[in-house]
């Protein structure tokens, strides 16, 4: 390839007096120099030449500018330019210089100085490089085939405008079973639909970038890509055992924890959150969830009784809180286990029947030793030990009542008087015969039934007076009486004058028949 830098000058033609413009100027090759030249001799670049050079050696060629005299040298007689150093296009792609032709004897310029460029021609000497690593991406497990994960990009320092040296294509060297990469864009995608975080939670891929569009002889570079598999809620809770066994004393208070069980979930984060509920056996037990440990805490809801039931089977169910509707077809996101609770027997105090206490009645004229009533208590334990009875003497300090220690029969110890005390409230104790620490108390209220053992009495002492001129039939006084007895149907009194006064003809007692009276009149 040649081109000419042409200069115009004026010359005198033969013939009529006139001036005619003719061409004169620079003539040289288009300058390219290949990079990375490894020869031992200076590399020929090209020649500069002016058409005024007739080959007589009268012209001297010089160059100036970038690299002149160091990187580039010129033969001042021939105008040949050589490169003396190994050039790298990736460091500098071209050099700008200026050419000058002078008269060798006078050193006067023969042509105007002219600028030219030496372009460093690219060779494929730079491999693609991944400059943005390390690469870490993520994708959810069970994602469909072709799901985009991330993009990687390799840079090639070669000339993108020249040949295919900088045309990069991508491929997966290691991990191609699970992931693919778009050869042109570098986008990494899933190659399978069954990525399972619980089986493998990360993959290390090796991605290669090759220049020359992947053709033979292209250079390549590689990088490692870490892909983290993120969790989805695709696993249900599972109890490690189908049955757990615990024991608790029958005397344990309501709210006492019986035991803890836990269901495991292969997922992670909030996908493992679960709640527990009782599907069977919730009458006597309840379950709560420990939010810190995700354990099910089984505790007592109502009092337990060894003698009534010794073993309880409680069905506990674990349920995922955050079920993903995309995976409901994988199965039920819940699981059940049986919590078997054995109730342990304890030595319990006797139980009175009725438990709320007893009310008894006795006639006030009953004799000492008469039976008032019988209290009943039994040992609720399986051994059903004998029970002994006694009266708490702080409630019967006068020892009005006695109790048979074996039968619980309460008898009179003293004569009763209803008018002195109509009720007696005592406390009866029942203890196990061989363990006096097992003691119970029951209140016994004894009502004293009235008998007519008290005569009527004047309500107050009476004293009457009358004038001597009182007329017959005149009211002198009204008399009132009382009776300390308490008949069920009320009192009925009959008034008469005492025998010693019945013959007195001056006074008369008026008694109204068939009327309940507490008074009579004179």
From TrEMBL:
InterPro entries: Cadherin (IPR039808), Cadherin-like_dom (IPR002126), Cadherin-like_sf (IPR015919), Cadherin_CS (IPR020894)
GO cellular component: adherens junction; catenin complex
Primary residence: membrane
A molecular function (GO) term: calcium ion binding
Keywords in alphabetical order: Calcium, Cell adhesion, Cell membrane, Glycoprotein, Membrane, Metal-binding, Repeat, Signal, Transmembrane, Transmembrane helix
CDD domains assigned: Cadherin_repeat
PROSITE patterns on file: CADHERIN_1, CADHERIN_2
SMART domains membership: CA
Its membrane topology: Single-pass type I membrane protein
Subcellular locations according to the entry: Cell membrane
GO BP annotations, alphabetical order: adherens junction organization; calcium-dependent cell-cell adhesion via plasma membrane cell adhesion molecules; cell migration; cell morphogenesis; cell-cell adhesion mediated by cadherin; cell-cell junction assembly; homophilic cell adhesion via plasma membrane adhesion molecules
Domain Cadherin span(s) in chain numbering: 50-130, 131-239, 240-352, 354-458, 458-509
Protein name: Cadherin domain-containing protein
């Amino acid at each position: 390839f040649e081109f000419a830098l042409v200069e115009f000058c004026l010359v005198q033609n033969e013939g009529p007096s006139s001036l005619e413009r003719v061409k004169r100027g620079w003539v040289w090759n288009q300058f390219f120099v290949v990079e990375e030249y490894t020869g031992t001799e200076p590399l020929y670049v090209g020649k500069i030449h002016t058409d005024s050079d007739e080959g007589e050696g009268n012209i001297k060629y010089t160059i100036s500018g970038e690299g002149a005299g160091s990187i580039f040298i010129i033969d001042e007689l021939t105008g040949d330019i050589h490169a003396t150093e190994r050039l790298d296009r990736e460091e500098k792609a071209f050099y700008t210089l200026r050419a000058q032709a002078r008269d060798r004897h006078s050193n006067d310029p023969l042509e105007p100085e002219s600028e030219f460029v030496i372009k460093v021609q690219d060779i494929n000497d730079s491999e693609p490089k991944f400059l943005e690593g390390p690469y870490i991406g993520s994708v959810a497990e069970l994602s469909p085939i072709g799901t985009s994960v991330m993009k990687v990009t390799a840079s090639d320092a070669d000339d993108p405008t020249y040949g295919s040296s900088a045309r990069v294509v991508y491929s997966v060297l290691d991990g191609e079973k699970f992931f693919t990469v778009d050869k042109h864009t570098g986008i990494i995608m899933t190659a399978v639909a069954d990525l399972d975080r619980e089986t493998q939670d990360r993959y290390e891929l090796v991605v290669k970038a090759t220049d020359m569009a992947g053709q033979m002889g292209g250079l390549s570079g590689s990088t490692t890509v870490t892909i983290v598999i993120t969790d989805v809620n695709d696993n249900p809770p599972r109890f490690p055992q189908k049955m757990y066994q615990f024991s608790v004393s029958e005397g344990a208070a309501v709210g006492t924890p019986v035991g803890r069980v836990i269901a495991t979930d292969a997922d992670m984060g909030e996908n493992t959150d679960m709640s527990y509920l009782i599907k069977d056996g919730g009458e006597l037990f309840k379950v709560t969830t420990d939010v810190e440990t995700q354990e099910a805490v089984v505790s007592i809801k109502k009092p337990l009784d060894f003698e009534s039931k010794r073993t309880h089977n409680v069905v506990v169910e674990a349920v995922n809180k955050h079920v993903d509707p995309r995976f409901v077809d994988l199965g039920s996101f819940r699981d059940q286990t049986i919590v078997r609770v054995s109730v342990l027997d304890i030595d319990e105090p006797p139980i009175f029947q009725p438990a709320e206490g007893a009310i008894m009645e006795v006639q006030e004229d009953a004799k000492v030793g008469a039976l008032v009533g019988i209290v009943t208590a039994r040992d609720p334990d399986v051994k059903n030990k004998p029970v002994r009875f006694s009266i708490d003497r702080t409630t019967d300090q006068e020892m009005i009542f006695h109790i048979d220690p074996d039968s619980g029969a309460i008898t009179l110890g003293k004569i009763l008087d209803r008018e002195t005390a109509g009720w007696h409230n005592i406390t009866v104790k029942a203890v196990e015969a061989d363990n006096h620490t097992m003691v119970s108390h029951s209140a016994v209220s004894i009502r004293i039934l009235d008998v007519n053992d008290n005569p009527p009495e004047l309500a107050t002492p009476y004293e009457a007076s009358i004038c001597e001129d009182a007329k017959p039939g005149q009211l002198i006084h009204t008399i009132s009486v009382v009776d300390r007895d308490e008949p069920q149907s009320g009192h009925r009194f009959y008034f008469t004058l005492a025998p010693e006064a019945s013959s007195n003809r001056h006074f008369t007692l008026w008694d109204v028949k068939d009327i309940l009276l507490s008074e009579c009149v004179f």
